[in-house]
Structures are given as C-alpha cells and as structure tokens.
Amino acid sequence: MKKVGIVMGSDSDLPVVQKAIDQLKKFDVPYEAHIYSAHRTPEEARSFAVNAKKNGFGVIIAAAGKAAHLAGALAANTTLPVIGIPIKASVLDGLDALLSTVQMPAGIPVATVAIDGAANAALLAMQIIAVSDDELAEKLDKSRKDASAAVLEKDKLLNS
Ligand code: RP5
Fold this sequence. Notes:
By secondary structure, the chain is of the alpha/beta class. The protein contains six helices and five strands; from the N terminus they run βαβαβαβαβαα.
C-alpha cells in the first residue's frame, strides 16, 4: 500500500496533527511524519516533496499555521495530491493559515480541510489511497456505516 506523508511546519503543530496520525493508525495505513518548514527548512521540505513519489508515498498531508505556505510549497514540487491543514496558531485564530493554504493560484492545487481539521485530512488521504485499494475502501465504508448507526442510536435514546 502507498504511504501517507505527513509534514508539519513545527512541533507545535503536533497536538493537532496527532488526530490525523490516530486515524491512520486506526485503519492500519502506513505513514511517515516529519517536521519540515517552508520557511525554516525550505531545502528539506522541497527534497521531501521531490522524492515523495519514488519513496512510496501516494498522498501528502501538510499542516502549518500563521503564514502557512507549506502545503503550497510541497505541492509545487510534486504531482502527488497534497492536503493542507490550516493550523490555529496565532492571534488570527487560524484564518491566516486557512487563507494562506486555500488560496492557491491555478496550476498548483492544494485540497484544504477546515482549520485544525486533521481527522478529515487523514480520512481524505485514505480515500485517495482507497481508489486503488479495495480492502481499504471497504474499511472506510464500514466506518461510515458504524458512525451512522451510532448517531441513530443516540437519536433513539433521545426519545425513549
Ligand atoms: C508555522 O508557524 C508552524 O506550522 C506553526 O503552526 C507556526 C508557529 O510555529 P512555532 O513558532 O510554534 O514553531 O510555521
């Protein structure tokens, strides 16, 4: 199975990124996580993206806060799908990172999830891998059905 690459701009992003890691572990999807910054370690970030495909990655998740250029900088150096997580890390409550991540110019797409939306980033990454992995696709389908059943159970309890 292709790996999911996770890159975060700082170790201060880890508490949020951990939710993505937890999802990948839950579904037994292989991943590799790194701390590379578009601003502080631009060479390492670039090298990760340039070599990601040949190193067995199928999709990259990039998490960054403030002037969050990481997802775009990685996407500029690979045609693997890149999912951006804007991190709430400043007095602007993540709106800065959201706009920095989502407003990519035509030609270099970044699929941006919600501010601190790490769980969805992992689920989207797995859905991308699952396009060519039926076993993972079945696991994701089952998880959706279980989540629906849990909501309906709560609904039933509310009126009992
Ligand atoms: C971004 O700046 C990082 O992704 C982080 O969200 C934010 C703050 O980083 P630290 O100053 O906490 O290392 O590059």
